[in-house]
Every structure is written in C-alpha cells, then in structure tokens.
C-alpha cells in the first residue's frame, strides 16, 4: 500500500521531507501541499507532481491524503495536529508538538479520546545510529547504572533573529527528548548558568549557556549550548555509569595526513549530521502506517514532556534559579515511566 501524504508548510524542512518521502522512502507519495505562501506551495508541489490546496483544514480533509505531515511554524502545529486527530488521520508533527504545555495536553487528551495513537513528533535523534548504539549499551547494563551525562550542542553561527530562549526551545529540545529516551527517566528540574559570553555573537544573546538537568532517578546532566562556536556543528554526549562510560561516536570521516598534519573534517550543519536519522525516521513511520500499525516513534506525550521541560528551562534562563518541571503523571495510554 502506498501512503499518500499531505504536507502543511513547504519551507526549509518541509521541502527536505517532501524530497525524502518522494526520493528516499519507499511506499509513500506526497499528494497535496499547502503553505500560507502560495508560491512556495506551488513550487514544492510541482517538483513532485502533487496538488496545492488552500489551507491545512482542506488538506487534512482531502480524500487523497492518508497521513499528514506538519512542517509549518511551531505556533501553528497544535491546530493542525488536533485537526488530523479529529479526522482520524495519522499526523507526523515536526518539533515542537505545540508551543505551550496546555496545547500539548489538549492534543494528548484528544488522542486518548480517539483511543489509538495517531501522533508522532519529529525528534529524529532517536533514529540516529550512534544514539541507538548508546541506548543499547545503556539498556544492556554494561556500564552499570548511569550517574552523570555530559552533552554539548554547538552550531557554527545563528541568525540575528535567534534569541536566548531559543537555546532551550529550538536547540536543547533535541537533547531533552533524546536523554529522556536514552535514560528511560524523567527530567524533574532545570537550571541555566551563563559563562562569559563569546564576543562572536549578537549583543542580545546569552551564548554559550550551560544547562543543568536532574532526573527523577537522580542522574545529573550538563549540556553546553553554544550556537556561535564558529568551528562547526558538533553534537557530543557521554554517559558515565557505575562501571564505565559510553560516548556518542562522531560521524565517520576520513583522516587526512598531509603537510605534517593529521586532520578529520567537522560537519557544519545539522542537515548533514542527521540526514540518515531523518531518512530512518520516515522509513519507519511510513512502514508502520502501511502495515496499519500505530506509529511507535516519539509520542504526543513525549511532545508534551519536551514542551514542559523547555518552558521551565526558559524560566531558568530568565531567572537564574533552579526550576522544577511541572509535569502531569504519565497516562497508561502512553506506557512506561518516561
Ligand atoms: N527536527 C529538526 O531537526 C528540525 C525541525 N524543524 C522544525 O520544523 C518546523 C519548520 O521549520 P523550518 O522549515 O525551518 O521553517 P520555515 O520558516 O523554513 O518553513 C515553515 C513554512 O511553513 C509555512 N507556514 C507557516 N504557517 C503555516 C500554516 N498555518 N499553514 C501552512 N503553512 C504555514 C511558512 O510559510 C513556511 O513556508 C519548525 O517547527 C521547526 O522547529 C526545523 C528544523 C530542524
Ligand atoms: O532543530 C534544529 C534546529 O532548529 C537547531 O537550530 C539545530 O541546532 C538543531 O540541531 C536542529 O536539529
């Protein structure tokens, strides 16, 4: 069965995913595209032989759309996710699920009323081969119980429109999700300390920031978010356990020896770093839908948890205090403890 996908939002990542669903993933076809910028929708649709529809509501209702992909701006995600659930259609929503915890909860409750999982959130690091190996080691118990995790999320530069709260909302959100999954644990408090700021930044921006998270089981996580590090896009993660440690591998790169030096390339953007993870994420999503199964990736609950934690982290950036995350108990519908 071919899964016919309708795409809401044909911007940067929308176009990437349209290309992926058309050229890389088997079993899917993009049949409809909408964007508030009609020229953008036309261009993206024409490239893959899809039709343009007026808006998200029309796209969700369309007979030639089996599943919905939401890649519009974050503040519009809740409306589209709720619309898709009301229509009983699976919906893949890029992060964030919604920009407020209240909207995320509404999606969670609506999905539970529907009685079957329809929502998947675009936290693609869970599909990265290196993170999957890290999880296997942690789950196997080979390094004993995890105690401390050290992480870094570095981007070469960001545009002037990037603000200090985006360090949590847009950047750290990926670590927040992947660490909950890796550790099978929940983040219960967050704190942010700011070292001396780099001079290679816009004056309004706190950069770098060091985020400190504590989990329900007492694991401590430090995350350096440094979005003007200049030298590359660099994602680091090292978990220290009672009997050893496990570290995320760097992407494979050839070593070059010349002129008395040995060097390896550092990637410069997230598109290249996580290209394979995005491919796997969509392959698995489409395969599950084609088989008539519920999506098994990051759930609406994971989207809710991430938004609660990023919101608390924004409060921590602004106040300098330790902020407890105020999360509802996890419903049985979403299983497990984290
Ligand atoms: N998983 C990941 O690593 C990444 C996720 N994202 C997420 O993807 C989403 C989109 O990001 P970008 O593509 O970078 O933004 P973008 O600004 O390039 O594209 C968004 C598009 O959505 C359209 N749009 C906005 N509201 C709409 C609506 N109500 N209906 C139809 N179209 C609408 C805009 O006109 C624009 O073309 C964001 O939520 C962002 O956080 C973005 C980059 C990476
Ligand atoms: O979502 C993303 C961007 O918005 C963000 O700016 C990058 O730092 C992330 O790694 C990327 O995955």
UniProtKB/TrEMBL annotation:
Residues 3-123 form the Gfo/Idh/MocA-like oxidoreductase N-terminal domain. It catalyses: myo-inositol + NAD(+) = scyllo-inosose + NADH + H(+). Transmembrane segments: none annotated. Keywords: NAD, Oxidoreductase. Residues 135-324 form the Gfo/Idh/MocA-like oxidoreductase C-terminal domain. Its EC number is 1.1.1.18. SUPFAM superfamilies: Glyceraldehyde-3-phosphate dehydrogenase-like, C-terminal domain, NAD(P)-binding Rossmann-fold domains. Belongs to the Gfo/Idh/MocA family. Homotetramer. Involved in the oxidation of myo-inositol (MI) to 2-keto-myo-inositol (2KMI or 2-inosose). This is Inositol 2-dehydrogenase. It comes from Streptomyces peucetius. The lineage of its organism: Bacteria, Bacillati, Actinomycetota, Actinomycetes, Kitasatosporales.
């Amino acid at each position: 069965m071919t899964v016919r996908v309708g795409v809401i939002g044909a911007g940067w990542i929308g176009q990437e995913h349209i290309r992926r669903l058309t050229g890389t993933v088997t079993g899917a076809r993009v049949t409809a595209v909408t964007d508030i910028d009609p020229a953008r929708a036309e261009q993206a649709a024409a490239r893959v032989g899809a039709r343009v529809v007026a808006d998200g509501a029309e796209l969700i209702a369309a007979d030639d759309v089996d599943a919905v992909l939401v890649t519009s701006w974050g503040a519009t995600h809740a409306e589209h996710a709720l619309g898709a659930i009301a229509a009983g259609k699976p919906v893949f929503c890029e992060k964030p699920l919604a920009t407020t915890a209240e909207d995320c909860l509404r999606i969670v409750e609506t999905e539970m009323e529907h009685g079957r999982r329809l929502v998947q959130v675009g936290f693609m690091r869970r599909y990265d081969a290196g993170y999957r190996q890290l999880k296997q080691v942690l789950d196997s118990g080979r390094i004993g119980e995890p105690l401390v995790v050290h992480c870094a999320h570095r981007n070469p530069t960001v545009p002037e429109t990037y603000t200090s709260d985006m360090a949590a909302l847009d950047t750290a959100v990926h670590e927040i999700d992947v660490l909950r999954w890796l550790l099978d644990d929940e983040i219960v408090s967050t704190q942010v300390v700011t070292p001396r700021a780099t001079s290679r930044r816009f004056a309004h921006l706190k950069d770098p920031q060091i985020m400190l998270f504590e989990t329900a089981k007492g694991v401590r996580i430090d995350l350096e978010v440094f979005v003007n590090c200049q030298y590359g896009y660099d994602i680091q993660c090292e978990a220290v356990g009672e009997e050893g440690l496990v570290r995320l591998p760097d992407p494979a790169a050839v070593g070059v020896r010349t002129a008395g030096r040995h060097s390896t390339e550092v990637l410069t953007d997230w598109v290249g770093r996580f290209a394979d993870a995005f491919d796997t994420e969509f392959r698995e999503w489409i395969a599950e839908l084609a088989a008539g199964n519920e999506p098994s990736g990051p759930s609406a609950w994971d989207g809710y948890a991430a938004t609660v934690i990023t919101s608390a982290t924004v409060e921590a950036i602004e106040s300098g205090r330790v902020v407890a995350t105020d999360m509802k108990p996890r419903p049985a519908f979403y299983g497990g403890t984290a």
